Amino acid sequence: MSDPIPRDVADTLAADLCRLPGVADLHPGQFGEVALLYPRHRVAGLRLVGDRVEVHLVVDLSARRPLTELADAARDLTTASLTATAAAGLPVDVHLADATSARESA
C-alpha cells in the first residue's frame, strides 16, 4: 500500500512552506506528534488526521504579514502540492501553532 502523501512530496512541501514569507518553521507539536512518518524518516509539521491534512506553522511576526493571508497561502500551496497524490482533494487545515520574531534577533 502506498503512502497517501509520498515522502518526496512531503519533504518538498515542507521546504516550500518554510520559504513562504511569514513562516519561520513548521511546528512539530508539543511532543513531536505532528509529523508524517516514513521508514527512518519523519516530516514534522504535517499530519494526516482522518480525511484531513494538517499544516502546523510557526509564524514569523517580523514579516508583518496578515495571518489570514499567510494561512490562505499555506493552504493553497499544500493543496497544489498534493494534486498528484492520494491525498488530493482532502481539506487542508492550517494551524498557527507558535510565533516568533525571527528576524529581530539578527
Briefly say what this structure is.
This protein is α+β, with helices and mostly antiparallel strands.
Molecular structure report:
This protein has a single domain (7-100), classed as Alpha-Beta Plaits (2-Layer Sandwich), CATH 3.30.70. Helix content is 25%, strand content 32%. The strands form 2 sheets. Strands 1, 4, 5 and 6 form a 4-stranded mixed β-sheet that branches. A two-stranded antiparallel ribbon has the order 2-3. The protein has helices at 7-18, 67-81; strands at residues 23-26, 35-38, 41-44, 46-49, 52-60, 92-100. By secondary structure, the chain is an alpha+beta fold. A hairpin with a 2-residue loop joins strand 4 (46-49) and strand 5 (52-60). It contains 2 helices and 6 strands. It is globular and about 40 Å long. The termini are far apart.
Examine the secondary-structure arrangement and name the CATH architecture. Answer: 2-Layer Sandwich
Helix content: 25-40%
Please state the average pLDDT score. 94
CATH topology: Alpha-Beta Plaits
Main sheet characteristics: 4 strands, mixed
Q: Supply Rg.
A: 13 Å
Strand-pairing-aware structural class: alpha+beta
Q: Per the principal axes of the C-alpha atoms, what is the gross shape? A: globular
Query: Would you report the number of β strands?
Result: 6
Secondary structure tally, helices: 2
Unreliable stretches (pLDDT < 50, length at least 5) are: none
Helix and strand pattern:
HEEEEEHE
Percentage of residues in strands: 25-35%
CATH class: Alpha Beta
- How many domains make up the coordinates? 1
Report the end-to-end length measured between terminal Cα atoms.
46 Å
Protein name: Asp23/Gls24 family envelope stress response protein
Organism: Corynebacterium suedekumii
